[in-house]
Design a protein that fits this description.
Elements (H helix, E strand, L loop, with lengths): L1 E5 L2 E2 L4 H15 L3 E6 L1 E2 L9 E3 L7 H18 L4 E4 L8 E4 L19 H14 L6 E4 L2 H11 L6 E3 L14 H11 L7 E6 L3 H4 L1 H9 L3 H5 L1 E6 L5 H9 L6 E5 L4 H7 L2 E4 L8 H8 L4 E4 L5 H7 L2 E4 L5 H13 L3 H14 L5 H19 L1
Parallel strand pairs: 1-3, 1-6, 2-4, 3-5, 6-7, 7-8, 8-9, 10-11, 10-13, 11-12, 13-14, 14-15
Helix pairs in contact: 1-15, 5-10, 7-13, 11-14, 12-14
């Protein structure tokens, strides 16, 4: 089987890219031919992927995306693929992996003038091309909340919405002996066992709420603040956050680590995951923390916050967000004697729930669509 994958940018440290790689790798393991169409490819080019970088021009981002759509359409006409799988919304897809939230829902409460904006018209039409009732695209859904929003705005029939379980790599699960690994990594980072490490993971700093975390760190009682460090793993514009940390007197306690491939080691080394995102379709790092046995403090608008509620392995902050609530909950968790109990609850849920089979279920859906295309001819 020949499969065309399409995504705007391949960036190795992003959650979307990791999901794409796990699905594509499984297709390669089954002996399928994998071609990947992108506007940008960052990082190494993995064997078997056949990446094709399309040069896209335009004065605006949506103009460049439009150019990509047109060039992709031209390429698809020249090739003979059994199935076309997109990881961003675009026309001509057989399957769409729905990592992005509903675009038009963001404008529901705004005045109608936005409908005159060329950017809005473009992205709303692209979304309609995927989810509209006239579309045939099968959508792989990873968020219950977003599934309902797409159904509300587009009337997408249930037979085109395939709900996927999470796809956490089982190798991320905490096992016996990891305490030694934890101590060694903390030592490599020059932190002692009495210091408290609060971890954030994510590359969109504003969306993930790095500013909120810095303010919460600065609000801690002085004795607690002196032994607490915030580690931020991910790519982004660090300058504004360095300035914010300095202005709040915690510059020496905020560590912006950049994109890293050793996130599992950070999860083991940390004492708490902090994820006060402004918006988050899922929040894969929440489940990565759960299988690593790490207590969590997250905002309720994250799709996977429901697992924190289910497991009672941390605290979920409800909307609307209040900085004071985050401040208080961070201090409470860091001072709590129950963090190990929270960690055990996380591991219990990780053993009980299917948090792992997303790639398998996604590939099964892709195979079904390919077979249905053959039968429809």
């Amino acid at each position: 089987m020949r499969i065309a994958f399409a995504l705007y940018k391949y960036f190795p440290y992003g959650g979307l890219a990791r999901d794409f790689v796990r699905i594509a790798d499984m297709c390669l393991q089954k002996g399928y031919r994998v071609d990947v169409y992108v506007m940008e490819w960052h990082g190494e080019r993995m064997a078997g992927y056949h990446p094709k970088v399309l040069s896209c021009k335009g004065l605006t981002n949506h103009a460049k995306v439009s150019s990509f759509h047109q060039q992709l359409a031209d390429q698809l006409k020249k090739e003979s693929y059994d199935v076309v799988v997109g990881f961003n919304k675009m026309p001509n897809l057989d399957v769409y992996y729905a990592a992005d939230p509903c675009y038009v829902d963001r404008f529901v409460s705004k005045c109608l003038l936005h409908q005159l904006n060329p950017r809005y018209r473009f992205y709303s039409q692209v979304e309609k091309a995927v989810f509209g009732v006239k579309s045939k695209t099968v959508c792989l859904m990873i968020s219950d909340v977003q599934t309902e929003l797409f159904k509300r705005h587009y009337g997408t029939p249930d037979n085109r919405l395939v709900r996927l379980p999470p796809g956490i790599d089982k190798s991320r699960r905490r096992v016996k002996g990891d305490e030694t690994r934890r101590s060694a990594f903390r030592q490599a980072l020059n932190f002692g066992e009495k210091e408290l490490l609060v971890l954030m993971v994510g590359s969109a700093f504003k969306t993930k709420g790095v500013d909120r975390s810095i303010k919460a760190l600065a609000s801690l009682p002085i004795t607690l603040r002196k032994k607490t460090h915030l580690m931020v793993v991910g790519e982004g514009d660090v300058a504004p956050y360095e300035r914010l940390a300095k202005a709040n007197g915690v510059a020496n306690h905020v560590h912006l680590m950049g994109g890293r491939s050793d996130v599992p080691d950070f999860l083991l080394a940390a004492d708490l995951l902090l994820h006060p995102a402004r918006k988050e379709n899922t929040g894969t790092v929440i489940l990565e923390a759960m299988v690593a046995g790490l207590p969590m403090l997250v905002t309720g608008n994250c799709g996977y916050a429901k697992y924190v509620d289910q497991s009672k392995a941390g605290v979920v902050i409800s909307s609307p967000f209040k900085q004071q609530v985050l401040n208080e909950q961070l201090a409470s968790l860091l001072l709590s004697d129950a963090r190990e109990a929270l960690a055990q609850r996380a591991l219990t849920l990780a053993d009980r729930e299917d948090l792992y089979s997303m790639p398998e279920k996604a590939v099964e859906a892709i195979e079904r669509v390919a077979k249905e295309k053959v039968h429809a001819v």
